Amino acid sequence: MARKEEPKIQPNNDLEKKIIEAFEVFDHSGKQVVDVREIGTILRSLGCCPTEAEIQEVILATENKEASGNVPLVNFLPYMCKAMTEHRYYPASAEMLLAAFRYFDKENRGYLTKEKFAQLMLQEGEPFTQEEFEEMMQTALDPVTDTIIYEYYINQLMVAPKDVYDKADEIELERKRKEAAAPKKRRASSLLRAAQL
To answer: Would you give the end-to-end CA distance of the chain in angstroms?
Structure first.
């Protein structure tokens, strides 16, 4: 028997709309499902900066249990709404990035050599792939000095969109307002005590 087509998920707010739009770019079948290999790209398109381990966490939490290798929107949407209102995967601040670059610039020159930067990106911490590194170098490397002038590079990084996090903040603020305005639920025991007085 043919499986019934799931109804298309409609967004309830601007945050959900942004997440759905980013998801749908990679939903090639139009069935509100993407390949797990697309999750990192979807997160980054939303302005998130997850580590590879965090991408795996998202996949584990949202992957279709019956058809592994796929992430359905019905699992992804609520998970990402919660993650974004909690500011998980939030990009580092300019100050934090500057402090990191200065830590590796022992001579306090204001730049890192291409070789030092390559060592840091390809061998230290959570290493980048060669392809990711080369893509980064297109923006990071100053063609005149052949170095990474990190204050300039940080300015290039800071143009990344964070409007989805702004929408998440609006949603969370509205949720807190509604919660504060809602009548407080009282336990049955406290109601009984009040009735006995």
So the answer is: 63
Q: Are the CB atoms for 87 and 165 separated by under 8 Å?
A: yes
**What residues are paired with 149 via a beta bridge?**
111
**The token pair that represents 132 in the structure block:** 């990711």
Please name which of 156, 161, 48 lies closest in space to residue 94, comparing C-alpha atoms. Answer: 156
Both structure tokens of 83: 């993650």
- The helix/strand/coil state of 184 is coil
Q: What is the pTM of this model?
A: 0.68
Asked if 69 and 33 touch (Cβ cutoff 8 Å), the reply is no
**Residue 15 · residue 81 · CB < 8 Å:** yes
Residue 21's H or E segment, with its range, is helix 14-25
pLDDT of 3 higher than 70 = no
